[in-house]
Amino acid sequence: MSNHIHIIARQSEGKLNEVIRDFKSFTAKKIINEIENNQQESRKDWLLHLFKYHAKYSKQNKTYQFWQKTSHPTELYNNEIFNQKIDYIHNNLVKSGCLTNAESYTYSCANSEINFKIDEC
Q1: Whole-angstrom Cα distance, residue 41 to residue 39?
Q2: How far apart are the C-alpha atoms of 115 and 107, rounded to whole Å?
Q3: pLDDT tens digits, 9-61
Q4: Left, alpha or beta for 19 (phi > 0: left; psi -120 to 50: alpha)?
Q5: What is the 3-state secondary structure (H, E, C) of the chain?
Q6: Against a cut of 0.70, is the pTM above it?
Q7: What per-residue string of b and e applies to 35-51 under the rule 16 or more CB within 10 Å gives b?
Q8: Which residues contact 44 (CB under 8 A, 6 or more apart)?
Q9: pLDDT of residue 103
């Protein structure tokens, strides 16, 4: 999807919220920099206006608000739930009609041979 991402993440020291915060900060800066410096981006003015508009309602972001402040975490406490979420992520674009199969999406791990289990992580 072009408007959100799904991530399965783990942080062994129990500081996953800090990892997510740093990920959002780093990626927002990089993406906004790309938009600002890409003369070919036809949506540049519209995107920057939108990010500025949302920053007005944020105490933390003075100029641009790229990511929503909230996330929707789900604890993956057994292999059944873990595999359900992996399948959901892989098939998200297929169910939305953007793709015919999950493996054809360049940025998906659906086209890899990797099989994860919670007890192996």
Answers
A1: 6
A2: 17
A3: 888 887 888 888 899 999 999 999 999 999 998 999 999 999 999 998 877 77
A4: alpha
A5: CCCCCCCCCCCCCCCHHHHHHHHHHHHHHHHHHHHHHCCCCCCHHHHHHHHHHHHCCCCCCCCCCCCCCCCCCCCCCCHHHHHHHHHHHHHHHHHCCCCCCHHHCCCCHHHCCCCCCHHHC
A6: yes
A7: beeeeeeeeeeebbeeb
A8: 35, 36, 38
A9: 76
Whole-number Å distance between alpha carbons of 47 and 113:
37
Tokens 């997510």 appear where? 20
> Using CA atoms in the order 21, 6, 116, 119, what is the torsion angle rounded to 10 degrees?
50
Alpha carbon distances (Å) from 1 to 62, 82, 95, 98: 27, 21, 11, 8
What is the length of the chain?
121
